[in-house]
Amino acid sequence: MERNVGTRLQTMFQQLEKLGGKAAKHQSGDDLQQIRYITCKIFQIITTQEKIHRDSILKNQSQLELLLQTLKNATDRAVLVNIINICSELLGKTQVGKKASAFVSVNATNIVFQTLVQEAEDNSPSDDFMLTCHHVLARVGQKDRKFALKARLNRALLVTLNLIKNNITNFRNLQLLLPVFKLYTNNSVNSSYLGKHNTIPPICKVVLQCSRKHASVLKFGLDILNNLTKSRNNSARTIGGEYVPHILALYNDWHHTDTKHRHVAIRKGLLNVLKNITNLKSGRKALVEANGIRVLYESAQDVIECREMESLILLASVIMRKCCPRNKLPISNVNSVVTFKIPESEIYPAQGTENSGIQPLIDGGDSDNSSLEDDDDIDSDDERFKTDNIDENEDEAGEPAPVACKRSPEDLRMYNFLFPELFEIECSEGTNESIVIPTGSLEAGLEYTKSCETEKSKSGIYPLSVGNLSKSASTSSGMYRMATTVSDFPDPSACYGSGRGGQFSGANTEYIDSYSSRSETSGSKPGASVISIDFPMSQSLSTKSSAAKKTAVQKSRKSKGSKRPGKDRKPKKSIVKDNSDTIASFTSSLCITPIPNIVDPDEEIDQNFLYDDDDDMYEVPHDPTMYQEVARLTKSVYKFEKIAYPDFVGATSPFDIENLYHRKFGEQRAKVFEDIDRMIHPELVIDRDVYDLDSIKARTGINFLPDNNNLSNGDEFRVGPGGRYEPGPDCLRFNSQFESGNLRKAVCVREFEYDLILNPDININHHHQWFYFEVSNMIAGYPYRFNIVNCEKLNSQFNFGMQPILFSVMEAMQGRPYWVRTGTDICYYRNHFTRSAQVTGGVKGKTYYTTTFSVTFKHTRDVCYMAYHYPYTYSTLQTHLTLWDQTVDRDTVFFRRQVLCETLGGNPVPVLTITAQPKTDSRDGVDEFRSRPYIFLSGRVHPGETNASWVMKGTIDFLLSKRPLAAKLRDMYIFKIVPMLNPDGVINGNHRCSLAAEDLNRRWDNPCPRIHPTIYHCKGLLQYMQMINKIPLVYCDYHGHSRRKNIFIYGCSASMSWVVNDTNNPGVTGNKLEDNGFRTLPRVLDSISPQFSLANCSFLVEKSKETTARVVVWRQIGVNRSYTMESTYCGIDREGKYKDQQITTHMLEEMGHQFCEGLLRLGRGRTSYETSYTLPCETSLEQLGAYGTATDYIEDDGCDMQRGDLNRARAGKGYPDLLVDAEDDSSSYADSPDNDENDNDAEDF
């Protein structure tokens, strides 16, 4: 039977092929009658017989083509109806996919559209026929990606629209028409076209008249309306038709009737329409007038505990936040509270600064696209968050690199005095020959010195001569040191020309003059600093300070135990072979960064020895009295009221493990809803200012000017029930008038909730991130919520496990003087406070972001401090420098603390020189001493990156320690260190800029001596070293990173430079395209440091970074290993012992130790590129060692340790079993920045 049916179908198609292929005008009456009969019979067969016969037609493409060709040529109504019905039956109602694809492949869509339009243009069109055509189109359109375009080209859009208007109350017909119309509106051009032809009213009418019985029609109608309202014009038409209140009411009805959540899709569709409409200001106004915020808020609160309704809650929150009134920050203007008069600069006129003016700014108006904004803030040296336009980069890819701004040799000789290692040490040979300056004759140097003695230096530094350097005097171990003195020069004011008045003034002058006489009575030793200074101290204070030191050391060693990172193993002996007979000779003291063979290639260093020897670690106990005296000499822009207690006692992080914070699901949404509730119920808002730095400035007037001579701290007398408290309101009290403090205003909005506003950088109106303030008068056991409401960055690590830090004075008095991670309900999200258009570069409608967290205090009436990260003030640095200077072992360590220059604010910028003392005072010993290659380190160019200072502290601690590895490192290298490049910003609580209102890390290309003195002279040091052929082997600038975890490095690769065929760099030499030695240090650090991540490292050289320290030192100075080392504020997520832990001061200091150990490994291998400049003879690669991974150091150096032994050693230290292939220089970590961390949190609305 089936065979007979199949044969009949085949016979009919053969007959149809003879007749249906003819054009209509060539068909006779008999032919037409025959076609009617055949198509009718085919329809009867496929409707009455089994599915196999329908499938046989679908599989036979020629038969489908014949049917559609007949449909295209036919004009008879009966034939058209038969074929359309055949097509409808073939497509069926279920499993349409493959069937529809078969129709699309034979151009069925165009033919059906043409048939539909022809029928609509007929004098008496058949609605039933056209509905059947829509039934076919609805199924075919699911597989035709150009369905909407074909509909528009065939002029079918208005045909369907007219059918909808004619059947607006016929829900059965609408079920056939709306699916096709939805496919039309998926195309934005079609949506705009239909909107112009009055599509919105009928669709809205369909939506509003649907009841629960017509849920399917309502779903299609909402999908169509959602597509239409994506067009701004169509949204405006919907608003103009006053449909917003009706849509809102419909949503409210469905919310109350759909109690079992069976129609979530309908409710979601209504919210999507409202979301599109509220992209317009008029739409937001219409929803607010319809009381939409309250309706959406209450409906969301009803289902907030239901996880299945999360999508609805998300949409409702987005709509509410867009519609909430936009407010200005409750401050008079967005500029910083205090200003500083910036000196005029010929290089950079006033309009060249980040903030060309300090006049009050007026907030811009609202914008229709305010919710679609990009981040305009860049991290210190991060390629991931660049702002350069891609097209612009492509167009300018062929441009050469910037030309360096060069200084004359005569100008650079002013830095002679900052190289005591070259000029102070004299030979003990019988002759009286002096040490010749490498850049010229002794006579030339003395002549230059005499000329400088008669006139002030215009660059802010007084150059010392060889004669002056020979006058150096030693100091006793109990004295402060200022390496550069003004007493040796005829005109002391000539020492500093870049500060206010061009000299030390005020307290610093007294500081030097009062105590310089102490150096006269101290013992003398060749090579010591020029002057030593000590503070007068009463006997009681001195005894107390000494006892405090002793107690601090005992507590420090007692409290560490096994909790301190890296301290849970017993020290093991290092395996060191005697290499006294294998030390290579050096060419001369003038060679370019020669790498000494202090470490023998066959030497093995036991990794377990690296961080276990506590007794040899150089740890200086904190001295509060010394800190107080140093803080009183620090110059600020405005008056400080006190010394912060954590800085006074030298607070650090605890030794306990602090895991990353894991917030509960929905915390961010809950905080957003609390903000919305505050706007819905303004009567419940207290809105009382409890701290206002602007008001304090206005009230104190001239008394607000800086005068820090009497700073102290009395917090211990304020705490507890019996503490001294000034009368005032019964709420929290705030203060930020201390060094590095930043809080502009605090507003009590509810009983236990406070809005906090940060102060921007001095002389500018943005860069709000760093905060550090005091809070007191709290009640224990109550959760206080703090909202920092003027943050700027698009996202924050506060969304990914980071917590702020808290210091409690009462806890410190009980023996726990630590900064601890604190806070719950932590999140970061966009708020409703608008940013000024002048702040955002002319873009209107951008808003600030809120960092919110809740803190439950342990003690009533405590005094606590809260900060973004562990503070490290300028006074802390000066105190540490003084303590280092007092206690360093000068018999073995060559240590000099000198002043590089003076900042705009009048604060000295220290520069350190650290190396080993000469082994002998013979000519060979002195030559070896001078021949050591240089390592140049700098940090804290961005004031808010305090983590950089903690890493720097760890580095200096290690270099001055008695560890054998530290001694080896000092024997190998000379370290030049500028630990703080932006003291003024640090002192005044800035986050990124200096007092010149500029990011100093963007001024390295051409710094101005008047407004960028620290960068000008730091670069001058490097240029001086370049001039005397002492280019550093490594330059590293320490930074912090706010949006990534781990610690990592940015380097420079010519092959990854924005400059095409970049040959203007130190990595290109001869026929070698690139020297890959710069990859060694990151690989070594990854193998020895559990907090360092090679995967985060990048070596891109972008055009936007050409003015940063890393790229300028690489390109202009010629340092192949020029790095930026970025440290996280948050924590560690790489595999190892620190995984999922918050970063601590001890981890950061440990990173400084490990960085030094990594530098030690650089002496174990050299490239032919380096040795061509440093060795007078040919050397094989085996003798030089290989640049690569930890495996290279083992295998190439001939050590007995095998790969498996290395993995076991690394596993014992908590490192992953991972060895990077030394030959793979194109790995993903080097090709692109880290992409693991998504800036968009799942709950970030």
UniProtKB/TrEMBL annotation:
Swiss-Prot/TrEMBL cofactor(s): Zn(2+)
Any GO molecular function: zinc ion binding
UniProt entry keywords in alphabetical sequence: Cytoplasm, Hydrolase, Metal-binding, Metalloprotease, Protease, Zinc
Biased composition (Low complexity): 541-554
Composition-biased stretches (Basic residues): 555-574
Catalytic center residues: 1126
Record region (Disordered): 350-404, 541-578, 1206-1245
Domain of life (superkingdom): Eukaryota
EC nos: 3.4.17.24
Any one GO BP annotation for this protein: proteolysis
Compartments (UniProt record): Cytoplasm
Family annotation (CDD domains): M14_Nna1
Stated family: Belongs to the peptidase M14 family.
Protein name: tubulin-glutamate carboxypeptidase
Organism: Dreissena polymorpha
